[in-house]
Amino acid sequence: DTAVSQTPKYLVTQMGNDKSIKCEQNLGHDTMYWYKQDSKKFLKIMFSYNNKELIINETVPNRFSPKSPDKAHLNLHINSLELGDSAVYFCASSQGTSAYEQYFGPGTRLTVT
Amino acid sequence: AQKITQTQPGMFVQEKEAVTLDCTYDTSDPSYGLFWYKQPSSGEMIFLIYQGSYDQQNATEGRYSLNFQKARKSANLVISASQLGDSAMYFCAMRKSYNTDKLIFGTGTRLQVFP
Q: Which residues contact B71 (CB under 8 A, 6 or more apart)?
């Protein structure tokens, strides 16, 4: 069983399009995250949700909108895609704020042409 | 501001030898956590080891150990008896303990194990 899953694994799209990446965790965790890994492998947090509430919102363009329909899901919608959005996006989850381990999904490689 | 520094962009080690991957951090918070993650070529992020700032002993997990030197603000990862499957990117990360689980990552070290 996959603990943290993301769909799709690969996403190729044109500039200006709107796309979504879905994330689901079956670990019973109450906190979920989105990270962006750029072409230089630098990994940076974007958002964090705890019990469906947004608790971390880093300096991310408002074209990025996370949505958490329930504790097990955290989706990322991106409007008006730009070339600079090309990256690998990782979803992760943890149990509460005292957890020391975040479980990462396999990543979604987004390529904007 | 919190910061994680990994100064080794790449490291080579022969199979069965030990290797140390460097990580230094900067924070003014007394309570924090330090992590190491492995990212193989397949892309997933795999948690390896955790060290809390108040932990008295260095963390160990199988062949992984964390050489925690608080005064020097370093948290080096030691991999003993390297295996070919250890070839991957390794990321050091830090988290504030009293805040939410926001992880700040270093730039990573690419480890290559050769026979």
A: none
